[in-house]
Design brief:
Elements lengths: L3 E5 L3 H11 L5 E5 L2 H8 L6 E5 L7 H11 L4 E6 L4 H9 L4 E4 L4 H21 L3 H8 L1 H11 L6 H12 L4 H11 L3 H10 L11 E6 L2 H4 L3 H12 L12 E6 L11 E3 L2 E3 L7 H6 L3
Parallel strand pairs: 1-2, 1-3, 3-4, 4-5, 6-7
Antiparallel strand pairs: 6-8, 8-9
The protein binds FE2/S2 (inorganic) cluster.
Length: 287
């Protein structure tokens, strides 16, 4: 398994034996014999896991854990302790350590706890990826095949953007960079095309996209109140999407149905003469 690990222990022999066990398993291991040295090393970042002794002269393990929580919150922490008192373990767990190793420990236990901790750190990293990156990763096969079908053809950019938007629902910066690279175009050119055409969007849409018309005919018939009510019901702002990705909310200048003002469209359905007080009933129809 891969990963960068810092072992912090004032007994060099502990660092050496951890290195001997963890390096052959594929980990990149470094050591620090004090909390101060550990902080110096950690300041440059790059460690997935810190395995630290609790009792050390100077900056001890608890202090180091507090420093890590503040300055390197993504690093996982395992505590090594020769005197595992319930209080110290409880305090360390409250500070978010993943696990602890009572001294002396067997190579098997060290490997097992390290692997579990590394999996926890990696799963957390995946969870914390921006939504757009997760979206693109989930559909990368389809996206690459849409690009592949058009690559090399003159004017490939617009059909690629259309197909990718159909696959993903929107064109976030991550996918724009992929398209630019694959079509050998500057990212600025891809971005300019996406921004220019109104049928391209960089924002994700909900399962149900709600468009509130704020054109003059609708505005004079309280369209603004409809928008306010929808924001309140959905708990999102204009251009936003609900956390469950069920609803997104947009405003438009005219939906071409001024005779029905005020107008709200949900997906392809037009709702006319909408009463701001009852707009919630319309939304309830869409699950
Ligand atoms: S102004 Fe709202 S539909 Fe035209």
């Amino acid at each position: 398994m891969e990963g960068n690990i810092l072992i912090v222990d004032d007994e060099e022999v502990v660092i050496k034996s951890c290195e001997r066990i963890l390096s052959p398993a594929g980990y990149n291991v470094k050591g620090a014999t004090s909390g101060e040295e550990a902080i110096n090393i950690l300041q440059n970042g790059g460690f997935d896991l810190v395995i630290t002794d609790l009792k050390m002269p100077g900056i001890d393990g608890m202090e180091l854990i507090r420093w890590l929580r503040k300055n390197s919150p993504h690093a996982g922490i395992i505590v090594i302790t020769g005197y595992p008192s319930q209080e110290s373990i409880r305090d360390a767990l409250q500070l978010g350590i993943i696990d602890y190793l009572p001294k002396p420990f067997s190579p098997e236990l060290l490997l097992d706890i390290t692997e579990k901790a590394m999996n926890t750190v990696k799963a957390k990293k995946i969870e914390e990826k921006p939504v757009e990156v997760k979206d693109v990763e989930a559909k990368i096969g389809e996206i690459m095949s849409a690009i592949g079908q058009n690559k090399g053809k003159p004017g490939a950019l617009i059909p690629v953007l259309q197909q990718v938007q159909e696959i993903l629902g929107y064109l976030p910066p991550t996918v724009q960079r992929i398209i630019a690279k694959e079509l050998n175009l500057p990212v600025s050119e891809v971005h300019a095309v996406v921004s220019f055409y109104s049928f391209f969007t960089m924002k994700p849409k909900g399962k149900h996209n709600i468009r509130v018309c704020l054109g003059t005919a609708c505005y004079v018939k309280r369209a603004n109140e409809i928008l306010g009510k929808l924001k309140e019901i959905l708990g999102i702002e204009e251009g936003g999407i609900t956390e469950d990705r069920k609803y997104s909310l947009e405003t438009v200048r005219c939906l071409g149905a001024c005779g029905l003002a005020p107008v709200v469209m949900v997906n392809h359905d037009t709702h006319g003469a909408v009463d701001p007080v009852k707009v919630g009933d319309i939304i309830k129809q869409y699950n």
